[in-house]
TrEMBL record:
One Pfam family hit: 23S_rRNA_IVP
Protein name (Swiss-Prot/TrEMBL): Four helix bundle protein
Organism of this sequence: Coraliomargarita sinensis
Cited InterPro entries: 23S_rRNA-intervening_sequence (IPR012657), 23S_rRNA_IVS_sf (IPR036583)
Amino acid sequence: MSEFAERFEDLRIWQQSRVLANGIYDVMVGCSDYSFRNQIERAATSSMNNIAEGFERRTSRDFGHYLDIAKGSSGEVRSMLYLAEDRKFIEKHLAEQLRGKAEILSSGIAAFRRKL
């Protein structure tokens, strides 16, 4: 993967996924529904970790597979943010802000995937 970066930490999509994961952890800290909180945090972390794991596999085919999983997890985060807003676990403006970050991440992953 050296044609893109030397380390996964240098990938813009990994950096974006890290910001998203931290944002999810920050807003869900007070959520009383532990199961919901755990699921959305795991989905957010999954995007970040799958980008890293795929990068470390060192083949375009494997990396592409893990990028597909990361993109799916980003979609899961977006979907769960609607429910978090509906259930009043987080405020609307925070849900919208995080959905925007997740959508940008999904688009970035798709664009990066096309370059492999």
